[in-house]
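In the design runs reported in the main text, the only information available to the sequence generator was the tokenized backbone. The following block is the verbatim input for one such run; it is reproduced so that readers can re-run the procedure and compare outputs position by position.
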């Protein structure tokens, strides 16, 4: 199967899930999770009209930049961000950081953005599975953290991101996504200035249907489009791997 065939299969899955959930497929954006994928292969997908990509490492954004800059697209950052990488990340047209998960990181990002006189869209990453291997604030802390982050006026807080539990038990996966939506409702009810939590970034290759049924506005898909990765995801998701 080619990347293009895989993409059209994902489109079908999105359409079917939306149909089942009574949602408009236009409400769900497909983000291509492109970690470890060569720039030329990403370019093929961009040229076919898929415009949103997500990268996990600043280094990879940098390496692919020259090839991708001539292909229309938008890049979100979806990986664990270290504060010493902020300055570099900001140099590469990243339009949204989906993985903001610490107030001190938000503050450093804010300081950098003030210096550069610009703003940045951000999502708060929430750990809805309770697994210690995943980054993100706990659902219980999320509202307080957002309240603190809202003080940084260069940050446009647009939504929440989560990685669901890896499990064959759909009900447990669904509970993660329901938790994220509940956090969204809780935060929106606070009516914080500068905060409008419209986006829910959740759902990946194996669980995108469940995420769409639970209200995802962005799904992030890698393996089902580009094939198995060489590195285990723990390489990207664990504190020890940085
Ligand atoms: C790799 C990755 C994905 C995509 O996962 P697949 O199972 O390959 O679809 C989604 N979100 C994040 C944060 C990722 O790191």
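Verbatim output:
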């Amino acid at each position: 199967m080619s990347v293009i065939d895989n993409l059209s299969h994902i489109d079908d899955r999105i359409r079917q899930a939306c149909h089942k959930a009574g949602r408009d497929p236009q409400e769900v954006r497909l983000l291509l999770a492109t970690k470890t994928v060569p720039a030329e292969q990403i370019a093929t997908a961009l040229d076919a009209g898929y415009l949103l990509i997500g990268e996990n490492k600043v280094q990879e954004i940098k390496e692919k930049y020259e090839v991708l800059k001539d292909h229309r697209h938008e890049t979100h950052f979806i990986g664990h961000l270290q504060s010493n990488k902020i300055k570099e990340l900001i140099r590469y047209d990243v339009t949204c950081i989906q993985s903001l998960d610490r107030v001190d990181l938000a503050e450093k990002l804010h300081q950098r953005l003030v210096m550069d006189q610009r703003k940045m869209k951000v999502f708060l990453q929430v750990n809805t599975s309770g697994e210690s291997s995943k980054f993100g604030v706990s659902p219980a802390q999320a509202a307080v953290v957002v309240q603190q982050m809202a003080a940084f006026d260069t940050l446009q807080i647009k939504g929440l991101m989560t990685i669901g539990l890896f499990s064959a038990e759909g009900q447990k996966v669904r509970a993660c996504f329901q938790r994220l939506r509940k956090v969204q409702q809780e935060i929106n009810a606070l009516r914080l200035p500068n905060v409008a939590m419209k986006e829910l970034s959740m759902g990946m290759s194996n669980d995108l249907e469940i995420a769409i049924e639970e209200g995802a506005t962005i799904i992030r898909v890698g393996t089902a489009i580009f094939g198995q990765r060489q590195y285990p995801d723990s390489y990207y998701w664990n504190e020890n791997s940085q």
